[in-house]
Amino acid sequence: MYTNVWYVAGRSDTLTEEPVKVTMLGADLVLFRDADGQARCISNVCPHRGSNLAAGTLYKDGTLACPFHGWRFNGDGDCTLVPSRRDHEVQVVAPRARIDAYATVEKYGLIWVCLGDEPDAASPIFDIPEWGNDAWRFTYNEEIWDADYHTSKFTNLDYVHLPVVHGILFQGNENPIQAPEHHVTATEHGYQSVMQINAKPSEGVWSTLRDEGTKVESIMKFFVPGFTLRGQVEIGGIGSGMFNIFYEFTTPIDEYRCVMRHYFLRNYKMEADFDAEHTRRNLQNVHQDKRLAESQRPRGAPTGPNPHGIYTHDEDKIMLTYWGLMERMRNKGWQIDRDRLVELERKPYVRIIPSPVRKANPDGWTLPAMPRVPAGQATEWPVSELSFVDIDSIEPTRPKNYGECEPVKPHDPLSNATLEWEAAALERIQKAPEFVQPMIIENAEKAAKENGSNFVTVALLEELQAKQQGRR
């Protein structure tokens, strides 16, 4: 895990009059608003007895009082009052009473916290040009994934998984599983990949968006701040001006779990009653990725790419670009030293993410800082020494139609779902034998559309089952 990164700690509208505890990078933190209404983030561990500050009292002056002895701390981490000896300055009563505080800003409806001691050196928060623009419709989703943030990100960082996981074939290719030519451009703060494909017309309520044979452009961008993936598809075809866009913000809770937050945007079908269908369609893909991430092994965030791993041209080109960004941060001394941390945790001390104040004044802290890999220390295999076969330069070794008789099919039949589904109806589908699920889905959605509905319910499934059994 990496310090000196701007992470999304939560939504602005959820931080009101009470402090909120959050866990990021394995550290407990507390968010609260000061007297001016500004969001603040400090360590949640009181330096006196280690109490949970988020369970304390937030006063009108913007100080947060520890629930054990009432010691008050402001948004800069300074202790402003020791109530039992209010007749003395705090630095007389408890000279080392201070807490690590972190740079915090609110942008795009989110609370961003730079967890580290060099916020000015961190990659800057990127622009979201659609925010606040009435030409765009937003929906939001947030959930915890039982997988580390690298693995969770990797489920979305290549093109080959699109047909295999989501059933999005590359139409026009001789091999619809092979990713079309795409160019990955890396920058200091992220990268971009652009791809154009001949898209299959959508089905159901999406069928009017584009014609058969229409070429669609897809642009994928990754930003280090928020470990954010931005996907943009000109869903109506190149030149249509109709875009489906998502932002995926990934915040590591620890080395085993992360919070995935999504903004889903569109500038077509702007009616409010289409929000549920737009969100459902996007979450359909998100949840297929989630199931994949949570099933992968080993569990736990890798500290770098596997030097013995298999890296292929289409599946791993983007992932290795990602690891190159992580390598840069490690070389700056920003990566938490997991091995050292595990060793130190044998002693009963809380380890704190180092803050700018700690860097400026490193002595006299009650709680020690998390260890980090020293700048320039080679602890992981360099990405430059990992390679894959340049397959495009090699003549084919099998006939082009090899394997066509048994084409790759998406494992999840719900990849083909196009309408909104009642949760209980989905549960019924998933209990059915896998080989009949696609047929049930097709028949249910056809019946829903014939009834003039965009929603498949349990009642509709029962009606279809009764008809099939000849009871009606």
Plain-language structure description:
Helix content is 22%, strand content 22%. Strand 5 and strand 6 form a beta hairpin. The longest helix has 21 residues. The mean pLDDT is 90. It is built from ten helices and 19 strands. The protein has three domains: 116 residues, Rieske Iron-sulfur Protein (3-layer Sandwich); 177 residues, Alpha-Beta Complex (Naphthalene 1,2-dioxygenase Alpha Subunit, Chain A, domain 1), CATH 3.90.380.10; 50 residues, Proto-chlorophyllide reductase 57 kD subunit B (Helicase, Ruva Protein, domain 3), CATH 1.10.8.550. The protein starts with 5 loop residues before the first strand and ends with a helix. The protein is an alpha+beta fold and 472 residues long. It has a seven-stranded antiparallel sheet with strand order 11-17-16-15-14-13-12. A six-stranded antiparallel sheet has the order 1-10-9-4-3-2, with no helix packed on it.
CATH topology (level 3) name of the largest domain: Naphthalene 1,2-dioxygenase Alpha Subunit, Chain A, domain 1
CATH class of the largest domain: Alpha Beta
* Strands, count: 19
**Which shape, going by the Cα principal axes?**
globular
- SSE order, one letter for each helix or strand: EEEEEEEEHEEEHHEEEEEEHHHHEHHEH
What's the structural domain tally? 3
Question: In the CATH hierarchy, what is the superfamily of the largest domain?
Answer: Naphthalene 1,2-dioxygenase Alpha Subunit, Chain A, domain 1
Into which percentage range does the β-strand content fall?
A: 15-25%
* Overall pLDDT score: 90
